[in-house]
Amino acid sequence: MEEQMDYSMAWLSYRKIPWYPDREYFRKIYVQENEAVIHTAAKELSRAAEAMFDESPQIITILKEAPENSSAGIYLYTDKNGPGNGGYHLYEEGGRLTITAEEPSGILYGCFALIRKVQRQQPLKNLDYKEVPDNPLRMLNHWDNMDGSIERGYSGDSFFFKNQELLINERTADYARLVSSIGINGVVINNVNVKENATKLISEDYAEDLKQLAMIFRNYGISLYLSLNFAAPMELGGLDTADPEAAEVRDWWEKQMKQVYASVPDLGGFLVKADSEGRPGPFTYQRTHAQGANMLAKAVKPYGGVIIWRCFVYNCTQDWRDRKTDRARSAYDSFSPLDGQFEDNVILQIKNGPMDFQVREPVSSLFGALQRTRQILEVQIAQEYTGQQRHVCYLIPEFKEILEFHTCCTKERDTVADIISGRAFPQFAGGITAVANTGSDTNWTGHDLAAANWFGFGRLAFSTSLSAGEIAEEWCECTFGPDKEITEAVCRILMMSWPAYEKYTSPLGIGWMVNPHNHYGPNVDGYEYDRWGTYHRADHYGLGVERGSKGTGYAQTYLEANASMYETIEDCPEELLLFFHYVPYTYRLKNGKTLIQHIYDTHFEGVEDVQKMIALWNGIRERIPEDIFMRVSERLEHQLEHAKEWRDQINTYFYRKSFIEDEKGRKIY
């Protein structure tokens, strides 16, 4: 096993590389200009060289591009003809390494790309690599509360807030380093459910702290964003209304934004959750979401700010007896009629599916329906419904499927990735965001392997063409070093983890079989008769929610040919069969199995998959630092016991509903 290391900086925990042949480049770093982000880039290269090579590079300022006879080293400079929009060109020529870009942020991303290559001990000779990020906005949404708690947080307390105060310390800078290293360029620091002191973040009370935080972020090419309380004019300003069409409300927001941007001129903007789960919004005043969002957008427009408006809007008081009202339809019904009505600095943030980050659900039909509105795809790496970072569940394969989904909105360039990047509709580029999975735990993500989701999201947001396997391998080698046995075992664990979790939890897209409130652990009927409006509709004959034209009609909210595909049981993709249709237990799937036998088999298989993960992990014990090995082992053992509980509860429930025996005669209670 390798020497003891401090892994508190995750994939930036650099290890010694004694015999790396290309280390001579790192003895001198030439910087063209005195710009903060480029200076940060040079410092990161220096930090990596000191840790990996015991080198202390000399940082030299040059007045222009390196001349023909300049000495060996790394050259960093902007070039108006270089890659723009955060892109960079990294190449080796004549004994020199050069990173050039149109913008300073591109230089920084290029430096981290170079460091990743060194961590993986890849050769640098004759290197010639250009990369431009696919998405303009690449964000993290933190659901941190100002008392230090985190809503759906599974990695300790907040490192942004404690006791109603903003925390700014060494961990703040460490966080900025980590997110910048994977290409994240925007961070929302507070919970979308804005309440109490969080409403005051836009007041003078926190102006100085936000100014300091924004400066740390700025040096790493990151824009600071805040979640906003739509009712702030009442709660903070003393008005008796928050009506977006009221003159006094518009005036209040204009004055408040002038004050905010005076303190933080480059504040990225604001994230807003309105009219959902008890949050205030324009519906209170019989106004549309476009009216609400546009009012705020006009207030921040003079400062270059944007309003990111969440589409997570639904009626959370549905009666379980009502078979027509469908939570899945809510975002589509609320926002599709408003396409083209939003200001150009409004971006709609759309969850990947129509429900709520389930282990399997269809891509939201809003993608494709909206063709004149900027959109951000929202995913969740916090694993709220996928094991809460106690189970390993590598989500990048899921995100790849979502990004590659064809919406049929155009003949070409019709994928979700095309829409959010602006390739489908160039004037309506948006981006991608993830609900963060970090906290105050030493390893940042509680489960050490959950860091692969954090790293993987950033890398995928920057370059959607990367495969989930490539990203897993890159994360593993940056974290543990280029040890083939470790890489093979860990990547196999990661790549089998999402399918395994799906197998032993919710079958064929049904979802929601969890304990209410904490969303952890099996409870088949936990939400079946609950006011939140999510159902599996299981009875003695079958299960599933009928969302075809004979049911709620949600299938018909998709564009053709997707609407026709989802409309019938025969054409519907089987992994989503129970999301879209009520299906008898005796229905035979394409592999010849009955639905009930599929439920039995997959739940047994899921447990077996976890056992295989444990065997793979145990096989590399001597190659993994002991503290990391033990932490992961403990969580894998918990996952195994929990998977068995899921298997037994789900199989027993449906056996007792259907009275159909398992064909293989296994123990079902």
Automatic annotation (TrEMBL):
Q: Which UniProt keywords apply?
A: Carbohydrate metabolism, Glycosidase, Hydrolase, Polysaccharide degradation, Xylan degradation
Any Pfam family matching the protein:
Glyco_hydro_67N
Chain segments annotated as coiled-coil in the UniProt record: none
> Does Hydrolase show up as a keyword for this record?
yes
Glycosyl hydrolase family 67 catalytic domain segment(s): 118-444
What is annotated as the active site? Answer: 277 (proton donor), 356 (proton acceptor), 384 (proton acceptor)
Query: Is Secreted set as a keyword in this record?
Result: no
Which InterPro entries does the UniProt record give?
A-glucoronidase_C_sf, GH, Glyco_hydro_67_aGlcAse, Glyco_hydro_67_aGlcAse_N, Glyco_hydro_67_C, Glyco_hydro_67_cat, Hex-like_dom2
Per its record, the protein catalyses: Hydrolysis of (1->2)-alpha-D-(4-O-methyl)glucuronosyl links in the main chain of hardwood xylans
User: What range(s) does the Glycosyl hydrolase family 67 C-terminal domain occupy?
Assistant: 445-666
Q: Which Gene Ontology terms cover its molecular function?
A: alpha-glucuronidase activity; xylan alpha-1,2-glucuronosidase activity
A GO CC annotation recorded here is: extracellular region
- As recorded in UniProt, its EC number(s) are 3.2.1.131
Q: What enzyme category does the UniProt record give?
A: hydrolase
Q: How does it assemble?
A: Homodimer.
Question: Belongs to which family?
Answer: Belongs to the glycosyl hydrolase 67 family.
List the protein's name. Xylan alpha-1,2-glucuronidase
